[in-house]
Amino acid sequence: MAVYTPRRSVAAVDAKPAAGVPGVMLARLAALGGAVFFVLVIINVSFRSGAPSATDSGQSVFDYVAQHHGRLQLGAVLTGLAMSAALLWVSGLFRALRRAEDGLPGLAVTALAGGILAAASTAMTALIQGTMATRIDDLGPAGVRVWWTMYLLSTGATLLGLLVLIGATAIVCLQRRLFETWFAVTSAVLALASVVGAFTIGYVTSGIQAVGGIAILLDSVWILLVSVRLWRTPELAVSCAGPVEQWSCHRAGV
Predict the structure, then answer these.
(1) How far, in Å, CA of 229 to CA of 208, rounded?
(2) Which of 61, 73, 138, 158 is most open to solvent, judged by the fewest CB atoms within 10 Å of its CB?
(3) pTM for the complete prediction?
């Protein structure tokens, strides 16, 4: 007996209730992870109001960290939690990309690797931030300035991962119509912006640092938009590989 194989295009998936389809709850959980990530990132950004730049004097940086060390410590914790939520989110995107590639995880694996790189780099940023705030008296103005510079430059490492993640997703969207065309084009533009922002890993000029900060915020909004789509249409990230899953997907119109 021939097993039913769905032949609908990815773009043809409708947002309809599919509680009985295996993996829907996981897709929505991943979407929730992306939303939690975005909220924690915004809170952490608000903690950095009035922060010095990488070109400010050591005394200026020292004074700022001394006055806000408690807030910086809490921000480090929130950043670490945000990365845990981000890994949950990227698992949902990976499932959606793999499904769009007909179960052959090509660019899906690339996107997953980019997400892991970004999360690991940002977790290291949190470690730097927490260590600097905790040991400020031992470091002194010169030491704090070096650690603060490392903290700012680590944004570039995060963007290196994000450009791979977003770029791979953009290619799949353009080839397989995973999301709308406007979103695919926007993703490609953000990937290019992330390339420019990634230069912050080696340069401390105000212009490049500003581009890196803006790229991080825009990429965070992009993650939130993907989360909204996964929440509204979890069928995008549902596997229909096995006979039981195929039957469930067929009943739900996936």
Answers:
(1) 31
(2) 138
(3) 0.82
